Amino acid sequence: MNQTRPKYTNKTYPVMLGRKLRRVYVWELPVRVFHWLNALAIVVLCVTGYLIGNPPAIMSGNEASEQYIFGTIRFIHFAAAYVFFFNFLFRIYWGFVGNKYARWRNFIPTTRRYWKEMWEVMKVDIFLERCREHVSVGHNAMAGFIYFIFFLMSGIMVITGFGLYASMSTWWFPKLFAWVPGLFGGDFVLRNWHHALMWFFILFTIVHVYLVMYHDYVEGRGEISSMGGGWKFIEEAQFQEDLRDTEEQEQKKKKEAAHH
Fold first, then answer.
1. What is the pTM assigned to this prediction?
2. Which residues have C-beta within 8 Å of that of residue 183, sequence separation ≥ 6?
3. Which superfamily does 7-259 belong to?
4. What is the pLDDT of residues 23-80, one digit of tens each?
5. DSSP 8-class letter at 16
């Protein structure tokens, strides 16, 4: 579980204009399960959340209590919220015990090298410059930083959501968030914050899907399929550089452990 050295195959593939590619196992099964479960939960939450914020006028001659349509929508929203929350907690945990590509150091910009890489990726992704492409085995710096913001927004979304749910729930867990409405200035303001955050997730999803497809098309390293099987195709030179970086980290940890 506490894996540092990347898993890879010894075979290289002489494709893509003569470049040698190596098959590297990047995304572990728990990361892939989190990704797709999170994607499903976000879609369900956004759809049901939009309906809760803008309830449709349902014209019917039946008794309202017999239909219970809006009650069902709210139940689905609350159920998806619990899935989103516990899945979120698991990802926080896996950021400490997963392989090197899942670790938190990939998401938090703490070094000058990280910021420099972010700028290089930005020139390609946003300004569409045809400069030397930046190749990363796992997340590139820009993607990692955006995911870090995503995790922060997820935390705020959880707090505001359970804060709204606290007054109507009979379970002890949501009531732990009963202090949240007062912090935001009441349920009305809190509901507006929660609704506004929904649009952040919608925008994030659109940009995320576009960039994944863009990098998969431009680079041809199996970006999309990697979240299904976990494997990516990486240039041999980049793989060796990543391997050296891993060995340097292992040596650094051994020296720190020896000093202690």
1. 0.82
2. 163
3. Transmembrane di-heme cytochromes, Chain C (1.20.950.20)
4. 888 999 999 999 999 999 999 999 999 999 888 777 666 665 667 788 889 999 999 9
5. T
